[in-house]
Amino acid sequence: MGIFDIFKSRPSAPRAVSQYQVTVDSEGFTIAGASYRQAAFKQFAKSIGASRDYRYSVKVFLIPERDNQADPDAIAVYSPQMQHLGYVPADLTPKFHAMAPKTRGKQVWRMEVDAQLYFWKNLWLLNIFA
After folding, report:
1. Cα gap 87→104, rounded to integer Å
2. Does the keyword section mention Amino-acid biosynthesis (predicted)?
C-alpha cells in the first residue's frame, strides 16, 4: 500500500454542527489526495465555470474525519457542494485542530477557508490559504 492509498476511500461527509471562518494569511498549501478525486474537482470546476487557463478564488470547507481508520486526526476538504476534494496534509492538521472549537461526542466542527482552484499538468489542484 502506497502513501496515497489511504485517500482512495470515499467516506460520507460528517454532519457539521459548528461553522466558522478562519483568518487568511499569505502562506498556503496544496491539499493531499487531489489526484484521486479528479471527478469531484471537475464537477466543482464546472459548477463555478472554471477553465483550465486561470486560477480561481473559492471557498472550501475543512471537516475533521474522526472515524478515519488510517488517521483519526484527518481533516477532509470539501467544496461548497460537499464534494470531497482531498485532505489537509497530516503535518498541518494540528494547526487546524488547535483553532477549532471544542465539541462533544460525535459533533464535528467545520471551517470555511479561502482557496485557489487551478489546473496544472493535467490535474485540477487546490491551494488553501489559512
Report:
1. 23
2. no
Residue 5, pLDDT > 80, answer no
- Report whether 83 contacts 31 (CB < 8 A): no
**96-122, pLDDT tens digit by residue?**
888 887 777 666 889 999 999 999 999
SS3 2: coil
Neighbours of 83 (CB within 10 A): 18
The one-letter code for the residue type at 37 is R
Alpha carbons 64 and 43: distance in angstroms, whole number: 22
* Sign for the pseudo-dihedral over CA of 90, 94, 99, 100: positive
Domains and CATH numbers, the chain: 17-129 (3.30.70.2330)
Side-chain-facing half-sphere of 9: CA atoms under 13 Å: 12
Strand partners, 89: none
